[in-house]
Amino acid sequence: MHYQMGSWGSYMSSRSVSDPLERVERLASENAVVIFSISSCCMCHAIKRLFCGMGVNPTVHELDEDPRGKEMEKALMRLLGTSSAVPVVFIGGKLVGSMDRVMASHINGTLVPLLKDAGALWL
Amino acid sequence: MSFISENIYCRGWSEEKFFCMASRQRVGETGLSGSGPSNQHMPYAVLQGIGHPATNLINQQGPAFDFGELEEAIVLQGIKLGDDAKKAFFTARPAATLEMFPSWPMRFQQTSRGSSKSGEESSDSGSGLNTDAQLEPESPISNKAPPDQALDQRQLQVEMASDDTFRTRLTPNQQANPLEKRKGAPSSTSEKVLDAKTLRRLAQNREAARKSRLRKKAYVQQLESSRIKLSQLEQDLQRARSQGLLLGVGGSSGGNISSGAALFDMEYGRWLEDEQRHMSELRTGLQAHLSDGELRLIVDRYLSHYDEIFHLKGVTVKSDVFHLITGMWNTPAERCFLWMGGFRPSELIKILMAELDAFTEQQLIGICSLKQSSQQAEEALSQGLEQLHHSLSDTIASDPLSSLGGDGIITNNNNHVADYMGQMALALAKLSNLEGFVRQADNLRQQTLHQIRRILTVRQAARSFLAIGEYYDRLRALSTLWATRPRENMIGDDSSYQTTTELQMVQTTQSHFSNY
Fold first, then answer.
1. Facing A107 at nearest CB: one of B380, B387, B448
2. Chain B, 364-403: which have a CB under 8 Å from a chain A CB?
3. Which of A43, A53, A109 lies at the smallest CB-CB distance from B436?
4. How far apart, in whole angstroms, are the C-alpha atoms of residue B379 and residue B341?
5. Which chain B positions have a beta carbon within 8 Å of A54's beta carbon?
6. Mean pLDDT to the nearest integer, B91-111
7. The pLDDT value given to residue A19
8. DSSP string, B91-127
């Protein structure tokens, strides 16, 4: 699912990169596997362990350690439509989703091909 | 005239009244001239009484029959006739008997059953079997339960002894009779007849003994099946208790169930009943070799049945996550394997592998990757939960020096309280994450089941789901068997017997599940 960043950007008067969602997208496309997390969140810890267990080396952005983390968190909440923004996973710049989506895709066998396509997994 | 004998004969034999009456009538008809036929009636009625071991003739009240009088009259007659008459009396009886009661063998058997039963039950049964005053020819019949007979004869003797008239006339006969019956030796009088009768008596004893052995066997078998039924009932009771249906009677959780938990337990109970229904549907569907289309419907229904329980758990997670996570809604054996409020998804794959051999290569690949991914996901969630534990215990662990000043003196009390409150609030927030983990675990379980359905053919999926259902059924049965296992005398000979019965019970349970 590739969300429309362009329209958002043009709508906002300010074109600064401080637009949280835009920033999220930018950060997400920088690496093959990007996880937005909060350091004290245990579910985030679980999702990190999942990828590490698969042999993937994800890029983790701790929102509580980012000065604009709060805004990004809110933006993610709006994006996902849930009350908890983290953890959220992007693979190959595309949004995969929260923990339950990631697990579902791993079980139904779609996660591994996605990782391979993004170059995060070689085996 | 003593009415003792009448009491002995007639009390409590309400069912036999008509017969006694009939006998009486017949006697009346034939008159007392024939000592033979009239005599037959009385012992016959007596024998009928033997067939009712519950009857305690001595104690019960009943309408008074004139058997005593009858008996007296007959005896008097017999004695009047003298010894020759007596001989004739004795010898005549068998023939007369045979004439009068063509259906005698049947009755004979009933009586034998009844008397040997009473003989078994207690040697002191007081079923007043008083065949006996004159009743030598009846002795083979009455001798079906020798202990009974002997006792009753003694009783009769005692009672008769109180009556002078009887004593003088009858005791010699009675004394002769018990001796004959006990020792089986031919009496001085009517040797030939007694020999034949002794043989017949012995044969009947053997028959009675054989019958009682068979009855005992049947009784033991009945006990065994009752035991199994009892364990089933206990299982149901336990289930009902854990579902909070018997809250007031000391439920498994001590009666302090939250409303959310109680509701869940009730729904879960219904779900378990549905589970049985679905499983039998799968079973019959497979055995009947239904078409793939029909089987698919059954399989998909089974899947949505599982979706229901996951949805239910999702609702309950919000109201009482601890109820789910402690597994009080499960049976004890299931609780042993509890992982995050339910079964381990990787367990499903294990069950799968144990049951089916006929996989295509593609299916094998699919199953192996499912095995791997479910294990990885399980591991990730477990580590996340462990992190939560550490974090929570860190939050709750109070640093004794935190509220103290540098000089070791406890400062502001308010601060202490505020710190405590803050600590608790933080802990509460962290605890709420527990809900998320149980939710994710259920999600994993659900996804795994659906993936199994996707990988396999309809028939394979049906067999797999049946295997899964039976696995957890067996686990639940194990809980019951464990709870009802004998615990007292595990030493000596008892232990082997108990092991055997336990094995029998287990085998019986297994036979339900095998052969699919």
1. B448
2. 366, 369-370, 373-374, 376-377, 379-381, 383-385, 387-388, 391
3. A43
4. 15
5. 376
6. 49
7. 87
8. HHHHHHHHHH-TTHHHHHHHHHHHHHHHHHH-TT---
Chain A neighbors of B381, CB-CB under 8 A: 46
Q: What is the per-residue pLDDT across B448-457, written as a single tens digit (0 to 9) for each?
A: 999 999 999 9
With contacts defined as CB-CB under 8 Å, which chain B residues touch A40? 391
The tokens describing B453, both together, are: 């359905």
- Find how far residue B249's CA is from the centre of its chain: 23
Closest-approach residue (CA) in chain B for A52: B380
Beta bridge partners of A59: A34
Q: Best residue in A48, A54, A107 to probe B by mutation, most B CBs within 10 Å?
A: A107
B188 token code pair: 């001085």
Structural contact between residues B144 and B116, judged by C-beta atoms closer than 8 angstroms: yes
Tokens 């001239």, located at residue:
B33
Please tell me the distance from the alpha carbon of residue B94 to that of residue B89, in angstroms, as a whole number. 10
- Contact call for A100 and B385, based on CB within 8 A: no
Model pLDDT for residues A40-49, shown as the tens digit of each residue: 999 999 999 9
Which pLDDT value is given to residue B412? 60
> What is the pLDDT, as a whole number, of residue B173?
47
**Residue B363 to chain A, least CA–CA distance (Å):** 13
- Specify the range with the lowest mean pLDDT, choosing from A50-54, A107-111, B38-42, B361-365: B38-42
Mean pLDDT in residue range B369-397 = 94
Q: Is the dihedral of CA B249, B251, B256, B258 positive or negative?
A: negative
Could you please report the per-residue DSSP string of B408-424? S-B--HHHHHHHHHHHH
Give the Cα separation of B266 and B239 in Å (integer): 10
Cα angle B465-B358-A107, degrees, rounded to a multiple of 5: 55
**How far apart are alpha carbons B178 and A27 in whole angstroms?**
112
Which residues of chain A are within 8 Å of residue B364 when distances are taken between CB atoms?
Answer: none
8 A C-beta contact, residue B477 and residue B509 = yes
Tens digits of per-residue pLDDT, B240-277? 877 665 444 434 444 567 788 999 999 999 999 999 99
Confidence category of residue B335, pLDDT binned at 50, 70, 90: very high
C-alpha closest to that of B285 among B452, B464, B462? B462
Supply B5's token pair: 């004998």
Average pLDDT, chain B: 70
Amino acid (1-letter code) at residue A123: L
